[in-house]
């Protein structure tokens, strides 16, 4: 396959609510330079630039300047699509597909994941590209290493998807792990632009036509607010992947994390040599001397205007703190 036909589509819409108070609306987690002095966004661009020669960044009106700053720092030419209002991943990917040639293969990745083992990653991409060229919609599955309740799951047989499953409770996740034919749903996709649009039109015509109407009047990649409100907010999983007959899954044997919780940030930082005490407590965001007494597996997160202490295992509950602050229109978001 000619490498010139592969476009890397970066989705940058998330606010990282489970990483509050580090992640804010004004500085979401994908722009935090927490990871070896780089942001997750920067790592995402660098990881995929060898295999792709075109880049499309789908962002929003609140974060596009941060994306521009990183892309200019990397001296990277790209197409920027700026959503006026978030309409979820089905529409975001549709805009990228409308901005591409029909035969272009799109590698769609979030901007806020950590992926290690580049050779294994590249090998998975090559498999996906072959399948995408055969008109399949390809998703990437990650072999689970623990019963994780924060991810969706893909039930599979060889390259075939049997079913997609929502985030499970702990017992169900444990059963998935024991069964051995369930992957974590990575949120990475690969397909031809025209194939995705055909499936979207078939499965969710309202999303397709409303997104097309918005794209046709875009001004240098900036999208119209009023027209965008007509687009149903629905994920690519619901809109297309769970309903199409032409889905394949490629196993990703690379190390992967969506860094969607402080538990995963903790694991990553400790693996990278972040200071940890004898009871496995860590502090993030401060060089102040911090002492933990009588507690284990705790994380202290320090920012200039907020302080949070949590048990590592309870990190999914941070979202509730965020939602509470949202309900009282707190300036801390």
Description:
The chain is of the alpha/beta class and 333 residues long. It has helices at 40-48, 64-73, 88-98, 118-133, 170-179, 193-203, 205-216, 225-228, 236-241, 262-271, 318-327; strands at 6-11, 54-60, 79-83, 105-110, 114-115, 137-142, 153-157, 160-165, 182-192, 247-252, 256-257, 282-284, 298-302, 307-311. β2, α2 and β3 (79-83) form a beta-alpha-beta unit. α6 crosses α7. The radius of gyration is 20 Å and the shape is globular. The model has no long low-confidence stretch (mean pLDDT 92).
The whole-angstrom Rg is 20 Å
Structural classification: alpha/beta
Query: What is the distance, rounded to the nearest whole angstrom, between the alpha carbons of the first and last residues?
Result: 45 Å
Strand tally: 14
Mind sketching the topology for me?
Blueprint: E1 6-11, H1 40-48, E2 54-60, H2 64-73, E3 79-83, H3 88-98, E4 105-110, E5 114-115, H4 118-133, E6 137-142, E7 153-157, E8 160-165, H5 170-179, E9 182-192, H6 193-203, H7 205-216, H8 225-228, H9 236-241, E10 247-252, E11 256-257, H10 262-271, E12 282-284, E13 298-302, E14 307-311, H11 318-327
Parallel strand pairs: 1-2, 1-4, 2-3, 6-10, 12-13
Antiparallel strand pairs: 4-9, 5-11, 6-9, 7-8, 7-9, 13-14
Helix pairs in contact: 3-6, 3-7, 6-7
Question: What descriptive keywords fit this protein?
Answer:
about 325 residues, alpha/beta, nine-stranded mixed beta sheet, three-stranded mixed beta sheet, 14 strands, globular
